[in-house]
Amino acid sequence: MRLYVNIDHVATIREARRTDEPDPVRAAAEAEAGGADGITVHLREDRRHIQDADVRALRRSGRTVLNLELGAHDDIVRLACRLRPFQATLVPERRREITTEGGLALRRGNRRLAGAIARLADAGIRVSLFIDPDLATLDRAASLGVPAIELHTGRYAHTWKKSGAALTVLRHAAAHARAAGLAVHAGHGLTYQNVQPVAAIPEIEELNIGHSIVSNAVFWGMEEAVRRMKRLVEEAQGLGG
Ligand code: PXP
Question: Which residues 6+ apart lie within 8 Å of 21 measured at CB?
């Protein structure tokens, strides 16, 4: 199980003052020292946190790999193709949302999305689609020819204390995706409290976690915050699906 650490909110703090600290490159280095297998950033259309220069600097400096989240917007896809991160995760993006609110809809005949997938793949970038854990959507993702999908764990994150239903949905979706030949990633809303049941799903090979790690890095430091999350993820491996 790979742990990719999303460091968007390090840049959120910096942009609150439009200054040069805290530095996402330093955060990435400390996350890697704590055991991160990859660094994730979302280059949003409104550039509210991560900036183009951050992606460029992270691409040059990282010891691990860079996973760039992006909407299928022409200029951002063009930039991604130029910067060539290891992986690009396509996400739906609305300007007014606080964070990514749902998975990609994957409507038939979405030429913009299909075009973005083709351009990124042609640039040698591994493409993943962020989607809800819905079987029909998974089948459409498989038909688009991508190697990987990221299951949206937001519903699980909102409901896990009260009900196990969303976890069951994630388990079925992960098995279905793997059977369709897709590599399975997961993320959104995962925390130190709720990560283990998801990390125990055997088909999931990568987790993307941001807000909870950055929040706790304020108290523990980034390296220790990642180390603690990584330990929980590794412990969960033994727990079975
Ligand atoms: N995966 C995707 C596709 C996301 O958009 C986000 C949020 O940027 C995450 C994972 C991480 O979510 P969180 O910050 O809630 O851990």
Answer: 14
